[in-house]
Amino acid sequence: MIAKHAKVSKGLAYNYFKSKNQIFESILNDYLSKQEALNAGISTNQAAVDYLRELFQKTLEFLVQERKTLILLTICKFQPNSLILSKKMTENIEKRFAPYHEAMKDRFKKLGIADPELELLYVKTFFHGLIMSQCTDSDIYPKHQIVEIFLSRYTGK
Question: Which positions make up the signal peptide (predicted)?
Answer without folding.
Answer: none
